[in-house]
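Me: I keep going back and forth on a fold encoding question. No explanation is needed for now; the record alone will do.

Assistant:
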Amino acid sequence: MAAQSLAGESVALVPLTRTDRPEARSLLTGLAQAWVNGVDVDWTRVLGTGGPLPELPTYAFDHTRYWLDRTRTTTADPAELRFWEAVEGGDAEDLATLVGIGADSSRSSLETVLPDLAAWRHRQQGARSFDSWRYRIDWKPLAAPGTPALSGGWLLLAPTDAPTDADAATVAACADALRAHGAEVHLREVDAGATDREALAELLRAAAAEREVTGVLSLLALSTAEHPKYPAVPVGTAASMALVQALGDAGLTARLWSATRGAVAAVPGEPLPNPVQAQVWGLGRVAGLEAPAGWGGLVDLPAAFDPATAANLCAVLAGLDDEDQVALRGTEVLVRRLVRAPLAEAGPATGWRPHGTALITGGTGALGGHIARWLAREGAGHLVLLSRSGPDAPGAAELREELLALGAGAVTVTACDTADRSALAGVLAALPADPPLTAVFHAAGAGRAAKPLAEQDPAELDAVLAAKAAGARHLDELLRDAPPEVLVFFSSSAGVWGSAGQAGYAAANAYLDALAAHRRAEGRPATAVAWGAWAGAGMAQDEEYVASLNRTGMRTMAPERAIAALAAAVEHDETGVTVSDVDWRRFGEVFTAARPRHLLDDLGAADA
């Protein structure tokens, strides 16, 4: 009757009770009908969930959400809608009439800027599809810790003949700080390049036999020289991995803290002089996941110690708020946090577009192929695809033909292992001057079959670091004098928050993130994108792998949207960004199951 009375009116009529239907079902159906007609409904109260609602399920036979993301906003201004319709349609006449431009000269100028306006609009709309995937690392100051007190015996491990005077000063300052705050310090010097896990386990057993070991502070990461047997592995990284393993072998229950100096950029604008030491941060994040009871955390030390630094170090070692990733700067204790990074906060776009010659390491792989297709479509004149197999790689010939059809002027597929510095130098030297090298994308990497840190050996660590870290280091060195406009390192979320069974991979990617920040501090271009899992070819084709990701809350990303996120990071000239599709409530439950971890604390209640 009401519908008949209001015929022709724009009114939604919603019955809340229906004949022969359960009342609860009728009520929920009515509320749903009201919601789709524009009524705001607080579904958490209606359904009594007490928290955020789960997302709608994926399509039954794939791991991609096909549901539209609906943002409930007020109705747009009709004039604004007409303005953007004219821009997107390239209708300068209609746009001029709308904004009141009458002079012919002004209309001519409008026609000139119209394509740029339309391109900007397109990019802004595209950004909405991946903005929820973007994150960055922030460093947050903690309140002053007060006067810390340590007790018992602390084993301080330092590299034999500390590499530099600054390293020697750091070792002495740490020993003095521990003693000043109540610890009995037992300093042991270790030849990091010649000591393996068996020797370290024996050292730990001997120390424990002499007296109780309450805690262990390792400064072995300070040694960054090349390992004599494993050239891709810094001796400090190898020794740090061996130490984690040795603690388990020796049966010590004391928690291990690993210290670096200048391995993270915790303060905006500060230099990051030792990116190699960031490898230990990647290792440590995995150690904390796999052996939470025996892991203390990571602390990055300043160049100079004072009484405040000493007190803050000891407060952290004593368990300050259960923080396990800390940087000491001045009088502050800074703690590491993952926060959202909407594109609007990334700064203005530079207007960079693919052109000239672009080189892609890992160019014949799944990720390399996606990068190459994007570059070909967007105007790169010459694509150089590097891989170990080069033209013999499966699908390389077909990829080359596809790229030419997409618009690339030339495509060169070359066999080159980026871990071989001289071979990479030869490839770079042979590149033609016209068109010039404008962009390099480092997407090369080794396979990453999961293996617990306790079972890994230095040779396996060397293989992973050679593929990603050594290649990035060689590119950094070889392009120092003639840097391209864009240098992008394909990193991984494994280096951001750790991934069980991926210690070497996490170490390599933490280094790539630090290397990008190091280059920026020196005024040279670099962008590191730490990726979550891509859908399609590659590891995401492994159903067991995808299922394990889903159990932890990580979802695979459609390649076309991931490429759009990559393009945005490059266009906005970002130093570092994490791009990953994550159900943070589920991920957080897994991430913090064994012990408190505060990395995700600042994501906000909506993400928890």
DSSP finds 20 helices and 17 strands in the chain. Residues 70-74 have pLDDT under 50 and may be disordered.
